[in-house]
Design a protein that fits this description.
The strands form 2 sheets. This protein has a 7-stranded mixed sheet, sandwiched between helices. Strands 7-6-8-9 form a 4-stranded antiparallel sheet. About 6% of the residues have low confidence. The chain is extended, with a radius of gyration of 39 Å. α1 runs antiparallel to α2 and α2 crosses α4. The protein is an alpha/beta fold and 363 residues long. It has 6 helices and 11 strands.
């Protein structure tokens, strides 16, 4: 079992597990998952443009060679340092979270190896301005290094495989795919959605979802070609063998039902949903009072009336105390205190001393 990880543009990582069975067939385990970082990439793009603007102004001041601009030049240098620090911190946080996500996917699926695309084949050049910018902002090197670090803690190996044609060929039949803009726009050229033109296959899906299947299948079939790089110490698969590549396809296992559920006759009439349980006999008659009784079929009406609250015309210090059991319904019914509570007398209840009255001994 292996986890294939593919690099993307808007979708930073796409990963999924695949299993190599005893008969040599490879099956995908689930639909895979994606790690999206469009917001972080957009913020990095804004910081990059800000940094380029500041560097442009600094170069302009340098070419002017005016001593009066030395103060502005120093301010720009400090601002460039701050923007660079923000970009570095953002790259570090993105690399840590992406690597942690990929290793968590491997831990949940249970494979012993993670197959990752070789970064040397994904250099950001010759692909257009937009694509080059997106690829340069994904900090792939930091993500790969942290992924190896996190995977080593759990005993999972990280192996890089060649990335040639992983997004171009169908993962089920190795036929060159047709890329479209969206699944609901099958005639508009694009790169996001892939369709297999082979009538017998007909696979279609997200371009990155098909790529991780190809990466996992390629790694599983080329296990014997894994070597350790002497300079970096990383485990890599350098070349792709045509004989092994022909077997690196994902096989779909047909679903086997427990019983034949094909319709052979008219549908049998279904019984109506049974009514909820109700009282079979009338509720017992309770004592007639001011409160009346509840309708039949609900709560029983033979219960005594709720205890009355304490007397509303209470003095400031006295609240009646029950002589029977505890009845704490006074506060709920608006008496202010429980029936057994006693309040301390307020100060204004004590008589005010009269300064004209003299008390004491005549002697």
């Amino acid at each position: 079992m292996a986890l294939g990880v593919d690099w993307g543009l808007n979708t930073l990582l796409s990963a999924g597990a695949a299993r190599l069975r005893a008969d040599g067939t490879i099956t995908a385990l689930g639909a895979g998952a994606q790690f999206r970082a469009a917001g972080v990439v957009a913020k990095q793009h804004r910081l990059r443009r800000t940094s380029e603007h500041l560097h442009g102004k600094t170069g302009h001041y340098t070419r002017l060679a005016d001593p009066a601009l030395d103060g502005k030049h120093a301010v720009l240098a400090e601002e460039i340092r701050r923007v660079s620090a923000r970009r570095s911190n953002l790259n570090d946080a993105l690399a840590r979270s992406a690597a942690r996500w990929a290793v968590d996917q491997a831990i949940a699926a249970g494979p012993t190896v993670i197959y990752l695309e070789d970064l040397r084949s994904l250099e950001a050049r010759g692909m257009g301005r937009t694509t080059n910018t997106c690829l340069s902002q994904t900090v792939r090197g930091q993500i790969a290094d942290r992924m190896r670090h996190f995977a080593a803690e759990t005993g999972i190996a990280v192996v890089t495989v060649p990335a040639g044609n992983t997004s171009r060929h169908c993962p089920h039949c190795l036929t060159p795919l047709r890329h479209r803009k969206a699944p609901d726009r099958p005639t508009t050229p694009g790169w996001k959605w892939a369709l297999c033109p082979q009538p017998d296959c007909g696979w279609q899906g997200d371009r990155d979802q098909g790529a991780w299947r190809r990466i996992a299948a390629r790694g599983l079939t080329h296990q014997t070609k894994s070597v350790t790089d002497r300079t970096s110490g990383q485990v890599v698969i350098r070349t792709v063998a045509g004989r092994l590549e022909a077997t690196a396809v994902i096989t779909t296992i047909p679903k086997t039902a427990g019983s034949d559920r094909s319709k052979t006759g008219p549908t049998r009439p279904r019984t109506h949903r049974p009514a909820p349980r109700r009282r079979g006999v009338p509720s017992p008659v309770g004592p007639h009072g001011l409160a009346g009784k509840r309708p039949e079929g609900h709560a029983p009406t033979d219960r005594p009336r709720l205890p009355r609250a304490a007397h509303r015309h209470q003095s400031v210090t006295t609240i009646s105390t029950p002589t029977t059991r505890h009845k704490p319904r006074g506060a709920a019914l608006g008496a202010g205190f429980h029936l057994h509570a006693h309040a301390s007398p307020p100060r204004w209840t004590d008589p005010a001393p009269d300064p004209t009255v003299r008390t004491g001994s005549l002697s």
